[in-house]
Amino acid sequence: MMAPRFGLLILALVAMSGCTNKSPTVASAATVIDHVTVLDGRGGPGNVDARVVVRDGRIVSIAPASGAVPEGAVIDGRGKFLLPGFIDMHAHLLFPRCTPGDGPLSFDRALSEKALSRELDFGITMVRSPATPTIEGLKLRDDLNAGRVRGPRALASAELINDQTLSEAQLRQIVRNALPFRPDYFKVYARLRPEQVATVIDEAHRHGIPVIGHLQRTTWTQGVALGIDHLAHSVDWSTDSLPESARPGYVEALKNRRGFRARIDWLEAFDPDGAGQRELIAALARKRISVDVTLIAYDGKFSPPDEPRYRQNPYLRAFPELRHDWERCDDVTAEWTPDDYRRWKAARPKLFAWIRKMHEGGVLLVSGTDMTNEWIVPGEGLHQEFELLAEAGLTPNQILRMTGTNAAEALKRDDVGIVEAGRRADLVLLSKDPRKSISNTRSIIWVMQGGRIVGRGRPRP
């Protein structure tokens, strides 16, 4: 749910306490994580007292911790939990800076690098950027993947497409113009009509590139029929997705309620149990179309000023630039009344119920934050998203699956998301069991990326 101003838009190995041998200084040396509980990203029971061997940036083997220990740097994993590195499926790579009025949009590369480095500190070893300035954004993606910038590895879309005046020929040319920069995705946005969405999907698929949809004028149901590959956010906020009897009231709310107030009216009128929604869930599940639900994008944006989880988050201290920009340019609830906040709080459980419905219906749900949007703190935001998913009724194992094997399936990658032999050694070691409380995903001892330990300990505010 990008804010309106978006428009068209390892390092050296860290020596670890608990190692019985000297830490390796090159990626080819073996690392043995011994007597550890492996939570492999599939959401099943843990592999207790396991031995994980890493060499040349890959997981070589996972076996019971018995017999002779292989030669290498040994990390004592007793009482600890090894997970695949977390994947944020909705993290925009470049931060736009505050440009009040109609000033030109500018992106802050230094701030973006700082945020991406913090993502890695929080155990996030891969991100998907679903809308990225084509030239500078895809350059940052390449720098991350080459190790020239500290941060997660990244996949990224070209700049989003949102101009409803564009012709079919113009839309196809936009796709072709981006091809030299090798985008991993294209993204169609809220204003596009169904025939325009269809054109972008067709042209992108001609070149083997999937399409992400932040849809609104085109409904999710229409997007699915047109061949969309991925959907962003929890709902489409489309008038046509409401019960027919509720549509006139919502249209009236759009005319009379400024900003995001009408979203409350939409959610109040939405029926998660309606026949159309049941059919949509079945189609999403059958076609394995991923949905990154980004609950934090709504919860943070619509939080009252005195809500401590977001505006008073201590991790925001490291990013004074963001607080400045969000208070100056992006406070979309600045004119909300106490009654607006009350209505949002009352309607919020319906959004959670919809998430549960999709999960129960077999939809490929993945975890994402919509980072760069207001009150989503880099790194910390994904752990808050996990907590919101738990509040919505998902179990810790189900949430870990969203950021593990579900993300790998959505990315069509067989090298990430699961702790198994042959995959990249993108790993997080925790001191507390996240199955007991999803908040324990913050109990980071170290973060490993490509077989190298690149971060140690939970970041401090």
Structural class: alpha/beta
Question: Residue-averaged pLDDT, rounded?
Answer: 92
Q: What is the CATH-assigned architecture of the largest domain? A: Alpha-Beta Barrel
Q: Helix amount, in percent?
A: 25-40%
The CATH class assignment of the largest domain is Alpha Beta
What is the rounded distance between the termini?
Answer: 26 Å
* Basic shape: globular
CATH topology of the largest domain: TIM Barrel
Report the count of strand segments: 18
Quickly count the helices. Answer: 14
CA-based gyration radius:
22 Å
Taking the sheet with the most strands, its summary is:
8 strands, mixed
Structural domain tally: 2
Classify the beta-strand content into a percent band.
15-25%
Uncertain runs are: 1-27
The CATH homologous superfamily of the largest domain is named Metal-dependent hydrolases
3D structure, described in words:
It holds the Pfam family Amidohydro_1. This is Amidohydrolase family protein. InterPro entries: Amidohydro-rel (IPR006680), Metallo-dep_Hydrolase (IPR051781). It comes from Stakelama flava. This protein is α/β, with parallel strands linked by helices and 461 residues long. The protein has two domains: 331 residues, TIM Barrel; 94 residues, Urease, subunit C, domain 1, CATH 2.30.40. It contains 14 helices and 18 strands. The strands form four sheets. Strands 1, 2, 3, 4, 5, 16, 17 and 18 form an eight-stranded mixed sheet that branches. A five-stranded parallel sheet has the order 11-12-13-14-15. Helix 7 packs across helix 11. It is globular. The two termini are 26 Å apart. The N terminus is likely disordered.
